[in-house]
């Protein structure tokens, strides 16, 4: 079925540089495909280093004026951008489901979620306060102001094609920075549509730029160009580490939202039905393709049988299909390669002794569809325990004591999201403080919103997105010593 939008001008085919829609210098293009059908949605400009350098130069020029725009006026532009995103929510959601595969209800939800960051940071623009600090002697005072960090580059993934950009562009613009965005090649259409709406909202030419194409060439230009002062990245840990290394010679600031290996812990005293609801949503949202998806489900002895029986039943009832169709709750994985990577982890773990309680292989729909899967008898040496799965696969691990489960939960290089279910207030504090994670969901399976600081510890990265802290990644503190008073 062809994609029909009520505003067809939101479907873009070119890069957006300095307020203009442009082709690649060499005229190169690449195809954007629908993972549910394999159909090509459109071809778009495939840019490289030279176009990226021009986008960075344009961002630099534009920032000189943008940073001087009063905070209240910047806030009004962001507010307008938010309004336009919500006005076009349905078109943006249709575009997203077409290029990414997630079910349409989730796409609608993501547009609202992404827009909420734009609304939030517009409000925060007016609260980038400094301090006056007592001086070291009576004739001196220390004054701190916060200034925009400089030209920002954002490299974003395909799993949240809108929100991962909104979470970066909104605080950057609020702080007075300009931005060059490189979206994932699987999902550039959402990014380009956002740029179109930013322009309509009154974002001046050059303040927002979008370049899609060769990741290595665009990435190399972004990381080596001294004009870029900050790189904000969401994606895999190996690429994040490489980008940090590439940023070192020019000493850019970096924010890294990388992989996760989230534990989801169910204690004997948990409300089991509520834990099932939380596990289903935190595991299977976006077909398991989020960095905060539950990756290992730990269940205590006393409730193990009950939880597993209910969880397996609920998993087996999930409807898999084209995300655009009503009633579907699990769409395809983003590519066949992604599906094969998930299957490899599952088959390796089965060979290592995991038992299949539901699913266990590719879906009969073919393509990149995968069966919602539950594996039991999982141990800490197995592939599904150690790796971020990024698919609808639930490894279940049995445990007996708090000490044992904390040790297993923390036995990973990652530290992004974690979840646990208990009704005991002492245990709530003990476990929450003992988990080496940036985010803890307590009796909740959905943890992200614009008011909260999202981010990880250990190899899950650095920096926080959202909340009053989210602006900190986009400002520098300047200290002025005022003497002779
Ligand atoms: P994922 O597993 O989510 O695809 P990646 O880290 O591969 O995670 O991709 C996240 C983003 O990083 C995408 O925009 C991708 O194009 C980009 N990317 C991948 N390789 C590179 C690279 N060598 N340099 C810069 N960006 C890259």
What does this structure look like?
InterPro entries: Ald_DH/histidinol_DH (IPR016161), Ald_DH_C (IPR016163), Ald_DH_CS_CYS (IPR016160), Ald_DH_CS_GLU (IPR029510), Ald_DH_N (IPR016162), Aldehyde_DH_dom (IPR015590), Aldehyde_DH_Superfamily (IPR050740), Succ_semiAld_DH (IPR010102). Keywords: Oxidoreductase. It is a single chain. This protein has a seven-stranded mixed beta sheet with strand order 14-15-16-13-12-17-18, with helices on both faces. A six-stranded mixed beta sheet has the order 9-8-7-10-11-19, with helices on both faces. It is globular, with a radius of gyration of 23 Å. It has 485 residues and is an alpha/beta fold. The protein starts with 14 loop residues before the first strand and ends with a strand. The protein has helices spanning 49-66, 71-87, 89-100, 104-124, 163-175, 188-201, 215-224, 237-247, 272-284, 301-316, 336-351, 383-386, 402-409, 425-434; strands at 15-17, 20-22, 29-33, 40-45, 131-134, 141-148, 151-155, 179-182, 208-210, 228-234, 253-257, 262-266, 294-300, 355-358, 373-376, 393-399, 417-421, 439-442, 461-462, 475-482. Helix 6 (188-201) links the parallel strand 8 and strand 9. Adenosine-5'-diphosphate binds next to helix 7.
Order of adjacent strands in the largest pleated sheet: 14-15-16-13-12-17-18
Shape: globular
* Low-confidence runs: none
Number of helical stretches of at least 4 residues = 14
**Main sheet overview:** 7 strands, mixed
Query: Which hetero ligands occur in this complex?
Result: adenosine-5'-diphosphate
Domain Aldehyde dehydrogenase: 21-479
Family: Belongs to the aldehyde dehydrogenase family.
EC number: 1.2.1.16
Active site: 257
């Amino acid at each position: 079925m062809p994609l029909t939008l009520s505003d067809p001008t939101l479907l873009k085919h070119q890069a957006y540089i300095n307020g203009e829609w442009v082709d690649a210098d060499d005229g190169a293009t690449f195809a954007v495909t629908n993972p549910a059908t394999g159909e090509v949605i459109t071809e778009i400009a495939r840019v490289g280093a030279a176009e990226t350098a021009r986008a960075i130069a344009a961002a630099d020029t534009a920032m000189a004026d943008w940073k001087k725009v009063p905070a209240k006026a910047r806030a009004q532009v962001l507010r307008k951008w938010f309004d336009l995103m919500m006005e076009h929510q349905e078109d943006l959601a249709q575009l997203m489901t077409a290029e990414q595969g997630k079910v349409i209800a989730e796409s609608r939800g993501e547009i609202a979620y992404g827009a909420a960051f734009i609304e939030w940071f517009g409000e925060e623009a007016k609260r980038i306060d400094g301090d006056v600090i007592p001086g070291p002697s009576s004739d001196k005072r220390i004054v701190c102001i916060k200034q925009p960090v400089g030209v920002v580059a954002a490299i974003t993934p395909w799993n949240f094609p809108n929100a991962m950009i909104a979470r970066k562009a909104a605080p950057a613009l609020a702080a007075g920075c300009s931005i060059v965005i490189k979206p994932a090649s699987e999902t550039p259409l959402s990014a380009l549509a956002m740029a179109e709406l930013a322009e309509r909202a009154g974002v001046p030419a050059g303040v927002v730029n979008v370049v899609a194409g060769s990741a290595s060439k665009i990435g190399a230009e972004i990381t080596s160009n001294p004009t870029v002062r900050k790189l904000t990245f969401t994606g895999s840990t190996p690429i994040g580490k490489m980008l940090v290394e590439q940023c070192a010679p020019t000493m850019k600031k970096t924010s890294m939202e990388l992989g996760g290996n989230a534990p989801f812990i169910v204690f004997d005293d948990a409300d089991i039905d509520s834990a099932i609801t939380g596990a289903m949503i935190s595991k299977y949202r976006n077909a398991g393709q989020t960095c905060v998806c539950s990756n290992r489900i730990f269940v205590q002895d006393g409730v193990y049988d009950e939880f597993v029986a209910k969880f397996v039943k609920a998993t087996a009832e999930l409807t898999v299909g084209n995300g655009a169709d009503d009633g579907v709750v699990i769409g395809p994985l983003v590519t066949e390669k992604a599906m094969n990577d998930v299957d490899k982890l599952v088959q390796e773990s089965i060979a290592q002794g995991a038992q299949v309680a539901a699913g266990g292989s590719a879906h009969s729909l073919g393509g990149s569809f995968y069966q919602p899967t539950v594996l039991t008898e999982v141990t800490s040496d197995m592939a599904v325990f150690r790796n971020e799965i990024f698919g609808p696969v639930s490894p279940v691990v049995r445990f007996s004591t708090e000490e044992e489960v904390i040790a297993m939960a923390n036995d990973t290089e990652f530290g992004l999201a974690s979840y646990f279910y208990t009704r005991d207030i002492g245990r709530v504090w003990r476990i929450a403080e003992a988990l080496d994670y940036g985010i803890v969901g307590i009796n909740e399976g959905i943890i992200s919103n614009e008011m909260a600081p999202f981010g990880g510890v250990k190899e899950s990265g650095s920096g926080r997105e959202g909340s009053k802290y989210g602006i900190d990644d986009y400002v520098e503190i300047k200290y002025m010593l005022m003497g002779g008073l």
